[in-house]
# Entry
Amino acid sequence: MEFLAPGSWPDALAARAENPGAVPIAGGTDVMVDLNFDRHRPDALIDLTRVGELREWSVAEDGTVRLGAGVSFARVMSELSALAPGLAMASRTVGSPQIRVRGTVGGNLGSASPAGDAHPVLLAVGAAVEVESAARGPRAIPVSEFFTGVKTSALEPDELISAVLLPAATGPQQFAKVGTRNAMVIAVTSFGLALHPEQGRVGAAIGSAAPTPLSAVDAQDYAAGELVDLWSSRGELPGGVAARFGELVAAAARPIDDVRGTAAYRRHALSVLARRTLTWAWDEYRRAA
Amino acid sequence: MRVHLTVNGERRQADDVWEGESLLYLLRERLGLPGSKNACEQGECGSCSVYLDGEVVCACLVAAGQAVGREVVTVEGLADGADLHPVQQAFLDAGAVQCGFCTPGLLVTVHDLLARDAAPEDAEIREALAGNLCRCTGYEKILDAVRDAAGRLA
# Structure
């Protein structure tokens, strides 16, 4: 095995292009587990922790937040809770303090687990994954097209994830997750929600209840339709809307029975999480008036 | 490969390190520092908690090569010679040690917590220690020790 430690982004892309059998490593919270348990012996590791560019974030004039792939969950919590409240909320539920200080949003996407904690919120806010190869340069993949199956993604073998692009929040966002305790939980199921008042749109996405993280499209459309006259008046959520929204979210899931929970439980839990988070987010929107 | 890093203030070097090896293995098996414990090897238990450039991490999840040129502080680096650090003394005095396996990781984590927050509330202590498992279920004494250590450091 080789250990490659590029010190810049161009060097990292070159290392990726020259070593198709290499595995990129950032926080190591997934990659090292595979190595420690001898599940995987890649030809090489490409250590991305010395690529300073990956640890930066910025906001463009149009309000797009460009979050470097190497920004840790701990930093998302402390630095981005206003611009990306849903992602910050999800970051607080990742592992433990030791995991959050190492684990990165880019690594979460690279692992592409259906249970990845960042994914539902990234779908709900309409984020894009910025990737790059030495040969073809950068491209942006909508998160809705990024996940292709269980732990597989649209990332090509010669590409690295450079950043996540997400719009700065314009309304309340929520993330909720079910597990056996507060810390160190791989989601039994999870749910991300984002209100986009300026577009009259509600983003809703499911984690850990389908082969990939998934947008609940019917639920999004239903909520947008019910709220169409309420964005400006900030009136009360009509009775039954949150519950119906929850039912549509549950219907969008494609869960399985596994060691963490049954399909039926996941559907039920999702309907509850969706109902609650819509209620919380709408209440926050009304209070912000 | 050869790795060099600073551990507990001393420059250290190791040769023939396997490229997929963890910082934990490097510390325990090559540098003679078995204080950091090897239990779950997947970041679940916190027994291998060490400082890496000032942040508490699970040493089992850091590749040895990622620690090259970095500063590591292990549980062995907390005491000042024969004088235990107040956090260590508080654990002893409170009886916050049963089998002792989780203790090194807890000491490092509590050391970090109290450096950042001199008087944490119980909820903050619990949150800070959420990544450190004690399977003897001695958490009450551990919480007592953290409160006591905070008092000693005040």
Notes: The first helix of chain A runs from residue 9 to 18. The mean pLDDT of chain A is 97. The two ends of chain A are 58 Å apart (CA to CA). Residues 2-167 of chain A form a domain with the Uridine Diphospho-n-acetylenolpyruvylglucosamine Reductase; domain 3 fold (CATH 3.30.465.10).
